[in-house]
């Protein structure tokens, strides 16, 4: 009697069963985890070796909750504090560099533009490495680079040094860190690990995916409040150098917590390209890529230029202009979370994402009519809510157009890599429009509003081409959920 493996999901325990069918000799079955072993006289014993591989264990449906799943949300939240939260503090750095180096804002803005460019460009590369299981060298390299860049920024004396440290080096580190999170889950001595940050949360949640992703991405808003407060409070007492070093130590401590919490659950793809060009044959995916490009071309400009607008146009003192940055980032916490709740309960992530993009574009157009500090504060609150809300739903919206969770990292990475060109040129282009218009911000405001409204229209076409708009809840077609009844209904 030989042992023949038959792949079949089962509980994580052993069950001995004896079956007898139509007078045939009893068959003894041993079920353990997702591997079923049967005794048979007609199969070779060495066939067992072909099944004891990582491919034997099929991915289970996302748990959609539980301690482990929500710990991944916490880890992702802390990661976004260190990456996008630090970036959202750029308004303070820009004001300091313009004053310290006597340079125009359009020149200084290349630092933050190259950061965002590197983050999005590396998303495809590091996301594929994470999908393949190369977590540790990728994430550790990213964390070391980011902390090193922050420390080097604190000792920079010239602008080109700032560009290399805070722009290039920090952007490289953030790009690697943002696209990956630590994790390994042991299953019968086989490791199932690694997927991109946004994709990691998507593999733990389906029905609550929008809420989970929104909370993760709210970390950028929290960091956008915490780091400016640190900068404002410590700068007069410690100076620029030690203030930035304190930020670096905070980032280092938060990353240590991330490494201790994060775990993944989807089998790594040991083989496969860094690009999945077949995805662009899907009309919905291609249109979504175009919409993302337009969105990234302008969505950050208001966050980066609202302080200079308050100072140059409304003639607000620098101390009061910082309040606008706190207000925008503070309101954006609610903007990250509340739209996710509505997306899960009523409209679906893609539909809500389109709505927020359109409203953000309209609010950007309204910026042209702002001529007082009180009006600017009201405007900043509205844009902080809607502008951050659409960023919080980006991952969930794209997940709704993705059928294979193991390709989630590559698909998100490709969209962001293409969008990185828009992120690179968006802020300097906005500054160039201001200079071309002799200090008038109207051209930049109209450009930003047009891009966001255009992104909403293109993403509407993407939704109609796919399934997001047609589904009431906008829930993704999750390939790892094995719904036998659905398949039977399809056959019938």
TrEMBL record:
Q: Name one GO molecular function term.
A: transmembrane transporter activity
Membrane-spanning regions, if any? 69-87, 107-127, 134-153, 159-181, 211-230, 242-262, 283-303, 323-343, 350-370, 376-401, 413-434, 446-470
The cross-references to Pfam families, in alphabetical order and at most eight, read: MFS_1
Its GO CC terms? membrane
Q: Where in the cell is it found?
A: Membrane
Entry keyword set? Membrane, Transmembrane, Transmembrane helix
Q: What is this protein called?
A: Mfs monocarboxylate transporter
């Amino acid at each position: 009697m030989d042992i023949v493996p038959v792949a079949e999901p089962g509980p994580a325990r052993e069950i001995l069963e004896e079956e007898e069918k139509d007078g045939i000799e009893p068959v003894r079955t041993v079920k353990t985890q997702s591997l079923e072993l049967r005794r048979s006289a007609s199969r070779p014993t060495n066939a067992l070796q072909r099944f004891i591989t990582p491919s034997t264990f099929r991915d289970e449906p996302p748990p959609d909750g539980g301690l482990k799943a929500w710990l991944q949300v916490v880890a992702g939240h802390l990661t976004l504090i260190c990456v996008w939260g630090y970036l959202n503090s750029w308004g303070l750095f820009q004001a300091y560099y313009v004053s310290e180096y006597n340079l125009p804002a359009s020149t200084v803005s290349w630092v933050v533009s190259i950061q965002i460019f590197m983050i999005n460009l590396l998303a495809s590369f590091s996301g594929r490495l994470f999908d393949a299981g190369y977590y540790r060298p990728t994430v550790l390299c990213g964390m070391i680079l980011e902390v090193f860049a922050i420390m080097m920024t604190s000792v920079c004396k010239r602008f080109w040094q700032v560009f290399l440290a805070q722009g290039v080096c920090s952007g490289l580190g953030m790009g690697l860190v943002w696209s990956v999170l630590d994790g390994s889950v042991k299953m019968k001595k086989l490791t199932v690990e690694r997927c991109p940050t946004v994709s990691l949360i998507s593999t733990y949640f389906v029905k609550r995916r929008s809420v989970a992703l929104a909370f993760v991405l709210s970390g950028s808003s929290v960091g956008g409040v915490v780091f400016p407060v640190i900068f404002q409070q410590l700068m007069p007492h410690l100076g620029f150098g030690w203030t930035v070093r304190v930020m670096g130590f905070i980032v280092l401590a938060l990353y240590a917590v991330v490494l201790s919490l994060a775990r993944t659950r989807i089998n790594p793809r040991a083989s496969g390209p860094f690009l999945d060009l077949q995805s662009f044959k899907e009309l919905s995916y291609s249109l979504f890529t175009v919409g993302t490009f337009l969105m990234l071309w302008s969505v950050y400009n208001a966050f980066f230029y609202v302080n200079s607008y308050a100072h140059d146009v409304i003639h607000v003192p620098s101390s009061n202009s910082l309040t606008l940055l706190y207000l925008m980032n503070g309101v954006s916490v609610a903007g990250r979370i509340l739209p996710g709740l509505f997306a899960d309960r009523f409209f679906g992530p893609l539909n809500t994402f389109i709505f927020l993009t359109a409203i953000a574009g309209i609010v950007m157009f309204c910026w042209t009519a702002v001529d007082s500090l009180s009006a600017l504060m009201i405007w900043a609150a509205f844009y902080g809510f809607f502008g951050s809300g659409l960023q919080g739903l980006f991952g969930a919206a794209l997940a709704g157009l993705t059928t294979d969770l193991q390709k989630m990292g590559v698909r998100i990475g490709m969209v962001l890599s293409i969008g990185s060109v828009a992120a690179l040129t968006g802020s300097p282009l906005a500054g160039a429009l201001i200079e071309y218009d002799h200090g008038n911000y109207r051209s930049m405001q109209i450009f930003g509003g047009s891009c966001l409204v255009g992104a909403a229209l293109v993403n509407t076409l993407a939704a109609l081409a796919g399934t997001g708009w047609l589904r009431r809840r906008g829930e993704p077609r999750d390939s790892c959920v094995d719904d036998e009844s659905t398949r039977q209904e399809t056959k019938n």
